[in-house]
Amino acid sequence: MVGTNVGSGSLYEGPTGFSRARRIGRYIAVAGTAPIAPDGSPAHLGDLYRQTLRCLEIIEKALKDLGAERGNVIRTRVYLTDAAQWREAARAHGEYFRKIRPACTFIVVKGLLEPEWLVEVEADAVLED
C-alpha cells in the first residue's frame, strides 16, 4: 500500500524503522510521541503538563507535514507513568483539544523507553473529502 511518511528527527526513528506519522489516503496515524526537545534530549524534566504539551506540538507538526491540522484528529491515546498525575496531562490535552474533543483514552503504563519521559501521546486523524 502506497503512503506518505514523515519523521520528526527523533533518534529512535531510523534504528527502529518507524515514522512519526504515516498517511494513506485520508487517514493519518501518528506514532507514540514522546516529549523530546529539538536537541534530542528529554523535554521539561519532571513536568507532566509541559511534557504533554511538547508531545502535542510534535504531533501537530507531523499532521501539518501531511496536510492535516489539529481539527482533523479523531482519536488520541495518552500513556502515563503515574496515575496520580493524570490531571496534569488531562489539562494539557484539554487545552489543546477543547474545541475538537477527539475520542481519547488515558492508559497507565509501568514505564516508557526513557525514564525521564512521563508521557507519550498517539493520535489518529482523518482528512475531510
Radius of gyration: 14 Å
CATH H-level name... which superfamily? Answer: RutC-like
State the strand order across the main sheet: 1-2-3-6-4-5
In total, how many beta strands?
6
Number of DSSP helical runs: 3
Poorly predicted regions:
none
Provide the CATH top-level class.
Answer: Alpha Beta
> What is the general shape?
globular
List SSEs in N-to-C order: EHEEHEHEE
Distance linking N and C termini:
20 Å
Name the average pLDDT: 94
Helix/strand/pairing category: alpha+beta
CATH topology: 60s Ribosomal Protein L30, Chain: A
The proportion of strand residues reads 25-35%
- Biggest sheet, in brief? 6 strands, mixed
Provide the number of structural domains: 1
CATH architecture: 2-Layer Sandwich
What is the percent of helical residues?
25-40%
How do the strands and helices of this protein lay out in sequence?
Layout (H helix, E strand, L loop, with lengths): L3 E3 L6 H4 L4 E4 L2 E7 L14 H18 L7 E8 L5 H12 L5 E6 L10 E8 L3
Parallel strand pairs: 4-5
Antiparallel strand pairs: 1-2, 2-3, 3-6, 4-6
Helix pairs in contact: 2-3
